[in-house]
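Supplementary Text 2. Reproducibility record for the structural model of the 270-residue chain.

All settings were left at their defaults, and a single model was retained for analysis rather than an ensemble. We include the record here because the model underlies the residue-level annotations in Supplementary Table 4.
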Amino acid sequence: MDGIYARNVKLGYANKVVLADVNLDIAKGEFISIIGPSGVGKSTLLMAINGNVKIFGGEMRVFNQSLHNIKNTALKEIRSRIGVIFQGYNLVKRSSVLDNIAGGMLRKMHPLQAAVKYYRHDQYEQIYEYMRAVNLEDEALQRCDRLSGGQMQRVAIARALAQDPEVILADEPISSLDPVSAKGVMDTLQRINRQYGLTVIANLHQLDYARRYCSRVIGMNGGRIVYDGSPEGLDQETVAGIYHGSRDNEPLFGVDRAPFPVAAGVVYDA
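Retained model, structure tokens:
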């Protein structure tokens, strides 16, 4: 199976198991949201797909590769096929929209070419395509520190697209955005899911967005998956079960504080 597969997996960090009995089958092209109270391991599950979480037991496979004791070369190949979008954008904010998007192509560039920001004609065409996909073509030369939060998150999505991934992982991509910007980001994720046939998996604390945009919802509580089904199945009783025991007063808002290790190669602006 060339998707994402987990059977009876235990996941965590150091010597601590955070998630147990994880069973998943994720096919190409799905748009999935992971929901649940703060701190239940949503980010742990998401980053396990990228090979950033320790596997204590069970079997987990991504692109038909077992992640248990995987060698670095094979793990790098898997990560090259996965784009990651962070809550904090992780852009080089003093650089332009164009240069930030081009950052997703670094593995395809000669180091000198990347250093002097020299892009071939075909690379410019690709960058422009991705800017159009996120509706930012008019901001190509704008510095990212002059953009709104929603625009910066859409730059991050375009940068992930420039990596030419098969899967996009999004950790709380709209948690710090106003409703209008949040809608713009979710519209963009839905559009690239459909346009490029990418698998999109997003941690969302906002239950209404999960219902509105995603084709499948995974609900978590108590270190386990307690719901895996369609948005239509999220009736009042099911939602109450997912958020049972939560200190969150309202499941539509908040931030998951589970650990989220940074993938290799991510550039932070100083």
